[in-house]
Write a structure and sequence with these properties.
This protein has 347 residues and is α/β, with parallel strands linked by helices. It has 13 helices and 9 strands. The chain has one domain: TIM Barrel, CATH 3.20.20.80. It has an 8-stranded parallel barrel, surrounded by 4 helices. Helix 7 packs across helix 9, helix 11 runs parallel beside helix 12 and helix 12 runs parallel beside helix 13. The longest helix has 20 residues. The radius of gyration is 20 Å and the shape is globular. The two termini are 32 Å apart.
Length: 347
């Protein structure tokens, strides 16, 4: 995830009246999310957040799957000298084991990260393809038998839908080949994990979604062990009605399991002059549409539904606008109307 790349969602944000912090919408009474859903419910987490007893309790009560928010990415694991560190992801994995939660790995190959150890690799000592394979084997192999799946390739498709993104990996190993290899190496490391292709803005940009699907088809045709599609679903409260339903139905057309992998619904990124009450109502509508669209899938295609955090206080979107409240629980961990809307839509 990065802050700048999501500007396409809307740069004309709600103005002065919405800039000031507002009280949270009235809390609602709700059963644990995982008790309401006939599919795995997940959240993203950072290892330090698990030291917050209230948040740790909220996570254990409400979800059945954990995704490390960034501590399984190369930016954390790969050190400048080429060594690996696993202390933080190990803590998340341990919490998942302790509370009998599924672990989902995020992410192996991302165009946006090119650690110094790879960018300045001395290929007289080790060939780049070998270093690439060794990294994937080390990371996936460490959590073999615990991680139920991985975002193997993350955000490969160009924003305009015109092909794939350039990266260190594409330049060194080939625009398509680096992706094909990643799936084979991940399968080598763990024969049982589900291996996903993950991307964002698929509900906003039909052309990007079409290119994403074509990439998935090409990977399958090339024999890559791709076993699922992830749609991040970072959206704003003013998302056009029907957009989420259309995107999820489109992605499901290949018959692969679908992971709503990083959902949040920003109030601050909605355009125009909407009142806080209207934004909250729209937020509930968007969460409800996502739940209904996911429920419309065959049960075998509902891999998991993951929120990118549970409490507003921990949301990455707070770094853009402190008054944003994109998640299902308020800063104090109380369920919001958006949570009720999502839950009601499952029935």
């Amino acid at each position: 995830m990065s802050l700048s790349r999501r500007a396409v969602i809307g740069s004309a944000l709600a103005l002065a009246a919405c800039e000031r912090p507002r009280p949270s919408a009235a809390a609602v009474s709700l059963a644990p999310l995982k008790a309401l859903a006939p599919f795995p419910v997940g959240t993203a987490v950072q290892s330090a957040q698990l030291q917050d007893a209230a948040l740790a309790g909220l996570i254990a009560e409400n979800v059945s799957q954990l995704t490390p928010e960034w501590e399984m990415k190369m930016e954390y694991i790969v050190q400048d000298d080429g060594g690996f560190r696993f202390d933080a992801p190990d803590r998340i994995a341990a919490f998942a084991r302790e509370h009998r939660l599924r672990l989902f790995g995020h992410t192996l190959v991302w165009y946006a990260q090119s650690p110094k150890a790879f960018a300045e690799l001395d290929e007289r000592r080790v060939a780049f393809p070998d270093a690439y394979r060794n990294y994937i084997l080390a990371v996936v192999g460490r959590y073999r038998g615990q991680a139920v799946g991985w975002d193997v390739v993350n955000e490969a498709v160009a924003e305009d839908g015109e092909g794939w993104r350039d990266s260190l990996w594409s330049r060194k190993l080939g625009p398509f080949e680096h992706m094909r290899l990643a799936y084979h190496h991940a399968r080598e490391a763990d024969p049982d994990a589900a291996l996903f292709l993950n991307d964002y803005n698929l509900e906003y940009l039909p052309k990007k979604r079409a290119t994403f699907l074509k990439l998935a088809e090409r990977l399958l045709a090339a024999g890559a062990p791709l076993s699922g599609l992830g749609t991040q679903t970072h959206v704003a409260a003013d998302l056009e009605p029907g957009a989420l339903k259309a995107a999820i139905a489109d992605l499901a057309s290949l018959g692969l399991p679908i992971h709503v992998s990083e959902m949040d619904v920003s109030l601050a990124r909605a355009k125009g002059f909407r009142s806080r009450a209207d934004l909250v109502a729209d937020q509930g509508r968007v969460y409800a549409e996502a739940a209904r669209a996911f429920m419309d899938l065959p049960a075998a295609q509902r891999f998991a539904f993951t929120f990118w955090g549970l409490r507003d206080a921990e949301s990455w979107l707070k770094r853009e606008k402190a008054w944003d409240a994109p998640l299902l629980f308020d800063d104090m961990g109380r369920a919001k109307p958006a949570a009720a809307a999502w839950a009601d839509a499952l029935r």
